[in-house]
Design a protein that fits this description.
It contains 16 helices and 11 strands. The chain starts with a helix and ends in a 5-residue tail after the last strand. It is an alpha+beta fold.
Length: about 450
């Protein structure tokens, strides 16, 4: 028994040591290659020959914030259009080019960008480069394709927003009520009326303005010959003509908040009340972002986190409680939320959330909490980068949020550098009474 106890103590000591040592581990940098074609397309590549696959990402500098006025949800809808027919491909051909050879493809629309990606055996790299170049230059934006995809997105809105008990809170009200000026206030999924009003002419204009080589980055990670890859890129993407028209950019700046605002919203299918408390965040290039990510993990990183332990486990007033650092290219949101347990009120949830915030502001987090959060974030980051697609995704995020693919080689070091004092400082800096929007969300009312 004594030997067993000694063994356990040794394991615990080793674990405690890992909390302090792993956070300072040195990470081998990615050897990223970059070049720009005459038509403005940026090409970013990383040779990784550990598996015979390639990840191909085409990143476009257009997201939901770029939706045309009165057309919220348009960038998301157009993402669906990109899987329809082109001059040289039938609709849904990307599925055949990827899934039929054992790979996969998908796309996502974010507030700040849209990405399209595939992972295939490396001997199909040329085929997919041709296919991506074809839909960049030759998409068929016709009435039939547009009508079918508009219906798909409208149904997605019904399923994700209207049918889900908390869909309106997280998919509509959180952004609409938190922003006053910036187009982030228009939820990326849009709304049914504005989606219905969209026309094929809108889609054609959107395509010509934003889907062009000088507004895109081609990212390829995996098993390829650099010289051959460069030649294929020149062959297929280099022939696309450069569009000389100016690309419209969002210039609106969300102003500082000057007072707390409060809202009460209802929906017809909410079983338990919920509360969201939002604060404006810094932009993605701000030096405070790593400390905010650490704070997010301490407050909300799993069942051992502060919010879960206090509101769900101890007080039992919430069935779910969390904090999100939603960092975007422009000012995003920092927000707490909680969904009540049976019989509990929004007022109780708000009081408990603000009490946890006050603790983080008035008392430094512990060294153990800091080390644990760093390990969680760094482990997650490294695990995501074990595959070629994960590396490509990390490079893509570095481009989107830092403007530099090589920022992928410094993000872990920035997390490692965060101190206890940094965490307390950012909690005091951003979470002020004047920078607060409180949303109560409860059952009642009609669909709207």
């Amino acid at each position: 028994m004594k030997k067993f106890n000694a063994f356990i103590i040794t394991l615990l000591a080793a674990f405690a040591l890992s909390l302090t040592v792993f956070g300072q581990a040195k990470i081998t940098p990615m050897n990223i290659k970059q070049r720009t074609l005459p038509n403005g397309l940026r090409v970013v590549s990383l040779r990784e020959n550990s598996s015979p696959t390639v990840a191909i990402h085409v990143w476009y500098n257009v997201g939901s914030k770029d939706d045309p006025q009165g057309r919220s949800g348009f960038a998301h809808m157009f993402e669906h259009m990109m899987f329809k027919s082109t001059k040289n491909m039938k609709s849904e051909m990307f599925d055949r080019l990827t899934e039929d050879v054992g790979g996969y493809n998908n796309a996502s629309t974010y507030d700040d960008f849209t990405n399209y990606y595939e992972v295939v055996p490396s001997n199909y790299l040329e085929t997919l480069l041709w296919a991506e170049s074809d839909r960049m230059a030759n998409l068929n934006v016709d009435k039939a394709n547009f009508k079918s995809e508009k219906k798909v997105v409208q149904e997605e809105f019904r399923q994700r927003i209207l049918s889900q008990p908390y869909g309106r809170l997280f998919g509509q009200y959180l952004e609409k009520l938190s922003f006053t000026t910036h187009p982030y206030k228009r939820p990326g999924i849009g709304n049914l009326d504005e989606l219905e009003a969209a026309t094929p002419a809108d889609a054609n204009e959107f395509y010509k303005l934003f889907y062009r080589p000088d507004n895109a980055v081609l990212i390829v990670v995996g098993d390829f010959d650099q010289t051959q890859f460069d030649a294929w890129t020149d062959k297929y993407f280099g022939r696309i003509k450069q569009n000389k028209a100016a690309i419209p950019r969002v210039t609106a700046v969300e102003p500082e908040r000057t007072e707390e605002k409060r809202f009460k919203e209802t929906a017809p299918n909410v079983p338990f009340p919920a509360v969201a408390i939002t604060y404006l965040a810094p932009d993605s290039k701000d030096k405070d972002v790593p400390a905010l990510k650490i704070a997010e993990t301490i407050l909300s990183g799993g069942e051992s986190s502060r919010l879960y332990q206090e509101l769900v486990y101890k007080q039992q007033i919430a069935q779910e409680a969390a904090f999100n650092a939603d960092i975007r290219a422009d000012r995003g949101l920092l927000y707490f939320y909680a969904i009540a347990s049976e019989g509990k009120t929004p007022e109780e949830l708000e009081k408990a959330l603000l009490a946890e915030l006050l603790k983080a502001q008035s008392t430094p987090v512990t060294a153990k909490e800091l080390a644990k959060a760093k390990n969680q974030l760094i482990t997650k980051t490294l695990q995501e980068r074990e595959q070629n697609d994960g590396k490509a995704l990390a490079i893509e995020r570095a481009i989107a949020y830092q403007g530099d693919p090589n920022a992928v080689n410094t993000d872990i070091a920035k997390l490692q550098a965060v101190t206890v004092a940094d965490v307390q400082r950012v909690m005091k800096k951003y979470f002020t009474d004047k920078n607060r929007v409180v949303i109560y969300y409860q059952n009642g009312g009609e669909d709207k």
